[in-house]
Amino acid sequence: MTKRQTQRRTQRPKWSMFPLIHDNVSRLLNADGLQFTFHDLDDDVSCIQTYDTSIMGRFSCHNQRCRSDGWTSMKIAITIRMYEGKQYNARVYYQRCKACNLLSKPILDESYAERVAYRLKKWCGVELEPPEFSGKSKGPHEKEFCEGCKAGHCSEGGRMEELEGYEVSTR
């Protein structure tokens, strides 16, 4: 493998933010009279609140030589952050294909907007019932393929077990 190929392979993103889903989050926040803007800069230093949780979605392997037809995940790690001035963002971690180990970006369902809006409402003092978990997993969470686990931001990865029930705040 050439140096250039090695650099390209190591520089692949292991997470993304989804600002285009902000309108869905806004609709859910507006129901309780809240308005937030999406904070485009992924900055864990200046945030005033941060919370690790999980959402659901689907992954497709984009390796043309891979035999995988994709997979659904009931546990996609996500880090939600709140910033001054009623701003937020959310980092959604990728998973690796079990067949070829290629990183894959998730296709999100409505659980993203619901989970982000729920957390922002909680931080703003809105009284809410905890959300019901409606999905049924078809198998165990495979930590070795989860970038959230590797980064210490997945409830299955170990670090979260130590912090269970503890909300991390940078202030």
From TrEMBL:
<protein>
    <recommendedName>
        <fullName>3CxxC-type domain-containing protein</fullName>
    </recommendedName>
</protein>
<keyword id="KW-0863">Zinc-finger</keyword>
<feature type="domain" description="3CxxC-type">
    <location>
        <begin position="54"/>
        <end position="152"/>
    </location>
</feature>
<dbReference type="Pfam" id="PF13695">
    <property type="entry name" value="Zn_ribbon_3CxxC"/>
</dbReference>
<keyword id="KW-0862">Zinc</keyword>
<dbReference type="GO" id="GO:0008270">
    <property type="term" value="F:zinc ion binding"/>
</dbReference>
<dbReference type="InterPro" id="IPR027377">
    <property type="entry name" value="ZAR1/RTP1-5-like_Znf-3CxxC"/>
</dbReference>
<keyword id="KW-0479">Metal-binding</keyword>
